[in-house]
Design goal:
Layout (H helix, E strand, L loop, with lengths): L1 H9 L1 H28 L3 H35 L80 E5 L4 E3 L2 E8 L4 E10 L7 E6 L3 E9 L6 E11 L4 E10 L5
Parallel strand pairs: 2-8
Antiparallel strand pairs: 1-3, 3-6, 4-5, 4-7, 7-8
Helix pairs in contact: 2-3
């Protein structure tokens, strides 16, 4: 019981506030029910209003009684109550301290000693052996025929100035003259003699007209002896004109 009274005293402020709010709400409802009872025209409506008026009055009186009771308890009853006993904390038993055994001392870890790396013995660098230079075989130098007599060809546009008649040639032979016909198609060099089996053999062919240096051919490919050499210029329609010389192929000098 003293604990309950102490609890009421502790929350007295909230109880006062609840009593005040209830008094306002239900007191207002009481006066509204009273006014409806006075204004009612029918007996049933008046009875309902009077019943609600009585209920609101009862609740209002209860809230007033709650506030008065809390005030009376705080004013006269609670101050006379003995103080509540204070619970004492149980004494804490003395702590037990456990001493850990000392850790064993580990022997020092031996440090690995680096093994010196042996220095490689000096070995002399081999001297490169000189490679003998390769001697290139000299290439035959083209020979420009200077001997011989230029032939008297029928058309000056198809003519030879070198080699001429009775010229002696060897190695690479350069040919000079003209190959410039109208309706030109191509020109070629041909050779006939012992080294060709008596037939005309085409040495080289050219597709553009020329004057002066016309081309060259290699006399070293044929056996030594007398030959006929000719320049043949072919037209677009297949007709052709030629200029022929006789010459001698000789063995190249050693």
């Amino acid at each position: 019981m003293p604990f309950l009274l102490q609890l009421v005293a502790r929350y007295a402020t909230w109880l006062y506030l609840i009593s005040l709010v209830g008094l306002i709400i239900y007191g207002r409802a009481y006066f509204q029910a009273r006014r409806r009872a006075q204004e009612a025209l029918f007996g049933l409506e008046r009875e309902s209003a009077l019943s609600e008026k009585r209920r609101m009055l009862l609740v209002t009186v209860l809230f007033i009684g709650l506030g008065i009771s809390v005030y009376a308890l705080n004013r006269w009853v609670v101050p006379e109550l003995p103080p509540l006993p204070v619970a004492r904390a149980s004494p804490t038993p003395p702590g037990v301290f456990i001493t850990e055994p000392p850790l064993p001392t580990l022997p020092p870890t031996p440090t690995a000693t680096a093994t010196p790396t042996p220095t490689p013995a000096y070995s002399p660098t081999p001297v490169p052996t000189a490679t003998p230079a390769v001697t290139e075989t000299p290439t035959a130098t083209p020979t420009k025929p200077s001997a011989g007599v230029p032939p008297n060809c029928a058309n000056p546009a198809v003519s030879l100035t070198a080699p001429g008649n009775s010229a002696e040639v060897s190695g690479v032979v350069e040919v000079y003259g003209r190959a410039e016909l109208e309706n030109f198609s191509f020109y070629k060099f041909e050779l006939q003699g012992e080294g060709t089996g008596g037939a005309w053999v085409t040495l080289s062919t050219y597709s553009s007209p020329a004057s002066g240096f016309l081309g060259s051919w290699n006399a070293a490919l044929f056996a030594s002896g007398p030959y006929l050499f000719r320049l043949v210029v072919v037209k677009v329609d297949g007709n052709f004109e030629q200029c022929t010389v006789s010459l001698i192929i000789s063995a190249p000098p050693p």
